[in-house]
Design goal:
12 strands; 314 residues; homodimer; 10 helices; 4-stranded antiparallel sheet; 2 domains; 26% strand; Ribosomal Protein S5, domain 2; 38% helix; Alpha-Beta Plaits
């Protein structure tokens, strides 16, 4: 049994254009890292958080990773004590699944320190408990891909039904994060609670097309399907210059481009590494010419989920 | 070049539970048959219609098959004359895609008599012209699977984007047609034009799950995904004893069961031929005990679309 472990959990893109609340994907980078140690005394201690500019609570019952680990320990009826060091390596409140990454890293680390009593899929409900602290409600479309890797469909929330969708090997994702903060709750509040049947039909045609395109490695179909007629027209109002930035990504060869989660980050899918590099550059140039500060990340789709960064055992 | 041809086009199930207006499937039987002959004089003549109890127009501009063939000839700028004999081999106005089958058989037959200038996929817009005569609007989720076979996703109507979804080999479909008639227009009128975002999310989770389940041959996922929270609760009101009949099908082992198209026919998917037989028998028993008259058809999913029934050439 290990005494300590370091775990990386990836950033994720929820919604993926036409899959509001039901589809998410994980990238290889950026992501969050935890270092966890078993301790003699029971109880969870968060000993350090780096990279959060002091924004996150060190109180385990108010911290995403802390709450997730506590929920897991409670489920397993364990009083094993643990220390958690959290290293945030991506922007917070940015729509890149930062809280899900910390929650997933936490439960995966704790599960290892406990001798892996649960499978990755079985850890999902506990990571979602942590997500609730950050977002008010648990939307699994960040936590599930952070935990399982790749594209994950949340077919149902009650009961929870997360399905991994096979995707082409050479699919790349570009993330771009303009420097402004949107609270997930605010981004939810502006959505209409009723939509037209006509729009809904278009959306379910597109989500079905996207899943088929991913599974058939049909890049053209992926591209045609990446259209969101329901959420993007509203949420894009919160992101200044959204349409110019999106157009720059598409002009540079992206298959499609949309809001990552509830924003303000955006994402683009690309059919090859060099295209992803071109898209990243085009967006960076666009940011510069618009006078928007921000970061751009290019990465492969992460197929494996969290990574164990060392294998030091006792 | 052939002088005459006989073509069979299959019955189809539109909507397939959670795929309202975007998904359809074709079965091996029943279906409609046309016999077509080239004639010297230009113009289309419908020389005979069997099995329609006199309900269909013999006037080419008012008949589904006639309109489809005329649209194809116009597109090809051809004045080739043709005679059409139509043999209806399934109930009309029943939700089994009867008008789509006639339209598809017509355009496929005409295309062969003209030396096959178009591919099957290219014939779809002309079959839809015929569908318009029958239904007022063109919904491609019957005509596309009748033409292409298997399960077909209509990702978009404008532009028309029909995508074939690969499905497990041993998938069977049971169709049951209670003896009552529902007009497609009426079945549309009772639908709500606005729906809740919450219901829509559930529906797009299910349609994405169904497509993933079909493509991965995951029968359990197919079964879990076959839920329609939007259309079925309303349209099932038009079908007396709907819930009892559905329960009988599920109890007999069906993966899922729902309304076929706009009803009143219903369908069930089954993972094997013997299960399909059991489901067919259970529904027939249910019909008998409820005092509902009707027909039951068991068949494999049709993977090839229309069949050419002879190969008599000149």
């Amino acid at each position: 049994m290990r005494d300590q472990v370091r775990v990386f959990a990836p950033a994720t893109v929820a919604n993926v254009a036409c899959g509001f609340d039901v589809l998410g994907l994980a990238v290889d980078a950026p992501g969050d890292e935890v270092r966890m140690r078993r301790r003699e005394e029971p109880g969870i201690r968060i000993t350090q958080i780096r990279g959060d500019q002091g924004k996150l609570s060190r109180e385990p019952t108010k911290n995403t990773a802390g709450v997730s680990v506590l929920a897991l320990l409670k489920h397993l009826d364990s009083d094993q004590g643990m220390e958690i060091e959290l290293s945030k390596q991506m922007p917070l409140g940015s729509g890149l699944g930062s809280s899900a990454a910390s929650a997933v890293a936490g439960v995966v680390g704790a599960n290892i320190l406990l001798g892996e009593p649960l499978t990755a899929a079985e850890l999902l409900p506990f990571a979602l408990e942590g997500e609730k602290v950050a977002c008010g409600v648990a939307h699994a479309d960040n936590a599930a891909p952070a935990l399982l890797g790749g594209f994950v469909l949340i077919r149902s929330y009650n009961p929870l039904d997360a399905i991994k969708i096979n995707t082409p090997d050479r699919l790349y994702c570009v993330l771009f994060h303009p420097e402004l903060e949107i609270r997930t709750e605010d981004a939810r509040k502006i959505l209409k609670q009723r939509i037209t049947l006509k729009d809904a039909i278009q959306q379910w045609g597109n989500i079905a097309g996207l899943v088929a395109g991913l599974m058939q490695s049909d890049y053209d179909l992926i591209s045609r399907s990446m259209q969101d007629v329901i959420i993007e027209p509203i949420r894009s109002l919160l992101i200044p210059k959204f349409h110019k930035i999106k157009q720059a990504a598409l002009d540079a060869g992206a298959l499609g481009c949309g809001i990552s989660g509830s924003g303000p980050s955006m994402f683009a899918l690309c059919a090859a590494e060099n295209i992803a590099a071109d898209v990243g550059k085009a967006v960076q140039d666009q940011f510069a010419s618009l006078g928007v500060g921000g970061e751009v990340f290019c990465s492969k789709i992460n197929q494996q989920g969290p990574k164990i960064l060392d294998d030091q055992s006792s």
